[in-house]
Specification:
about 300 residues, 5-stranded antiparallel sheet, about 45% helix, alpha+beta, Beta-lactamase, 13 helices, 2 domains, binds 6-diazenyl-5-OXO-L-norleucine
């Protein structure tokens, strides 16, 4: 990255401008615990391949990964099973529907979820994580994601997990539907425990930026140079981030920002500049697609300023 000095000077200003967009969105409330978040919060860290980083705003506090975790559980499922098995159970196409829609499961045969980033697809992916018990599967996810974040195992936010598990009837109905379609073979409650728990793992902006940086470097650890993910699986993950990472806002985001990215209903956004940098953002106020309204605004501004779009 050669923009460091302008980024360091401009980032706090652009962040405060983007924060003005927060009142135009809403904090997620369908998982009651998430509704406690501060809607005006906005933080960002950008971490470069050259070891430099810059941050601004409220980036110290932890937040749950929510759907951002789906990128990494997909990578783990691919590493555990290979492409053929994973893509016999989940498709590769965007839906144009909201992240929790199950409409197309019934409309389009053979009833496998359209892609691994919508809830139905991520639930199937959770069933493909290797481990002889749920505890082992969850521990593996915590360790792998922690390694990408440059720390020990990621911590579980028990309150968010419990809140989602208690209110997750739409996800539960999807899982039963998938069982009936023969797509889900494990017990519904077991799969949902893995799914709800990986959504409830916590990071801060810096850790999220580092996870993104590993993807930006095609799966190589930025500090040790160790290959953590096969290149092909990073390529698959990045492609899904472009086509489905911001749900039914992915097309608009590709036009306005033009970077691979993944959002979560906690307000997190992970984005990356291939070969150059990883970006972690938190801004809990969401737009109608479930993406951080101020976070998207900030990325639009940065992309325009530094001509970051890949397209
Ligand atoms: O299953 C859910 O509804 C949440 N655990 C994750 C959804 C999510 O983050 C969608 N993102 N924008």
């Amino acid at each position: 990255m050669n923009e460091w000095s302008s980024l360091t000077a401009g980032l706090p200003v652009w962040l405060e401008q983007a924060r003005h967009a927060a009142p135009f969105g809403k904090v997620a409330s369908y998982i009651p615990e998430l509704s406690k978040a501060d809607s005006s919060m906005l933080g960002i860290q950008i971490r470069g391949a050259d070891g430099r980083s810059v941050s601004a705003g409220d980036c110290g506090s932890p937040f749950t990964l929510q759907s951002i975790s789906k990128v990494f559980t997909l990578i783990m499922a691919l590493m555990d099973n290979g492409e053929e098995i994973v893509f016999s159970k989940v498709g590769m196409e965007p839906t144009g529907d909201s992240f929790n829609s199950m409409l197309k499961l019934e409309l389009v045969q053979p009833g496998i979820p359209f892609n691994p980033l919508i809830n139905a697809g991520a639930i199937v992916v959770s069933s493909l994580i290797a481990g002889s018990s749920n505890e082992e599967k969850i521990t593996r996810i915590q360790s792998f994601l922690g390694k990408l974040a440059g720390r020990g195992p990621l911590q579980l936010d028990e309150d968010t997990y419990r809140s989602e598990s208690e209110s997750g009837n739409l996800n539960r109905s999807m899982a039963y539907f998938l069982t009936d379609n023969g797509v889900l073979q494990s017990k519904v409650e077991d799969v949902l425990e893995v799914y709800f728990k990986h959504c409830s793992l916590t990071v801060d902006c810096g850790e999220l930026a580092r996870m993104a940086l590993v993807l930006a470097l095609d799966g190589v650890d930025p500090d040790s140079g160790e290959r953590l993910i096969p290149r092909r699986y990073v390529q698959i993950a990045k492609t899904f981030m472009v086509t489905c990472g911001m749900y039914n806002g992915s097309g608009e985001f590709a036009i306005d920002v033009g970077l691979p990215a993944k959002s979560g209903v906690s307000g997190g956004i992970m984005a990356l500049l291939p070969g150059r940098a990883g970006i972690g953002i938190i801004g809990p106020s969401l737009n109608r697609h479930g993406n951080s309204v101020a976070g998207v605004h900030l990325l639009e501004q940065l992309s325009k300023e530094f001509d970051w779009s890949l397209f």
